[in-house]
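Format notes (please read before filing issues)

Several people have asked whether sequences and structure tokens are stored in separate files. They are not. Every record keeps both together, in the order shown below: the sequence lines, then the token lines. Line labels are part of the format and must not be stripped during preprocessing.
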Amino acid sequence: MRRAAPALVVSLLFSLGLSACSSGGPTAGAPAPPGVAPPEGAAEAARIDRVLAGLDGVIGDLQRILVRERRITPEVTDRLQSIYTGPELLNQIDAFRADVAAGLVGYRKPPGNRLTTVSRLITVSPICVFVEVTRDYGPITLGPARPVALYVVLVTKSEADDPKQLNPTPWTMLYDGVQSDGSQPEDVCR
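Then the structure lines:
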């Protein structure tokens, strides 16, 4: 398991407005109409959406490098390391190796950024966030791409996670996907 976050990272998290709470209610979507209260956790979901957009931007950058170079370069692995940690980093490296071995079939030239949005907050704390998301791969892939439901676990990153400061967020992904049977993974943030 990861070590506790330094005080600077915790203060950054609070400046992003992520409170130490847990919510299972609906959270994403358009702002509530005037006079109607926003769904529980909507502000936190919006903040996490901005974090996910930053991470999606790093993925987009590495995919553009991958498509241009047609191989996994140090620039690609540096970006992967900046946004993934633990076993998920190895899973992502393996997935990109498989994409390269298959000739990067189905990638746009150049690819855009995938779009990840929170559909449900599961657990939110200053050092760990577990959310269900919807991800749109349309900007990356050729042909029609339907959005998919996935789960993401964010944990605070350390300097060792991102020594070249390629990730614009204070977060890294510990989990990014879905269980093989489609079920929700264990909540490691509790």
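For reference, the curators noted about this record: Strands lie at 115-124, 128-136, 148-156, 171-177. Residues 117 and 133 are 5 Å apart (CA to CA).
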